[in-house]
Amino acid sequence: MIVAACLSGGPFAPGVAAGGAAAPPAAVLGVSLGTGAEAGVSKRRIAVEVKIGIQMAPRELVVETSDSAEEIERALIAALEGGNVFVLNDDKGGTVLVPADKLAYVEMGRAEPRRIGFGG
Question: Model confidence at 109, in pLDDT bands (50, 70, 90)?
Answer without folding.
Answer: confident
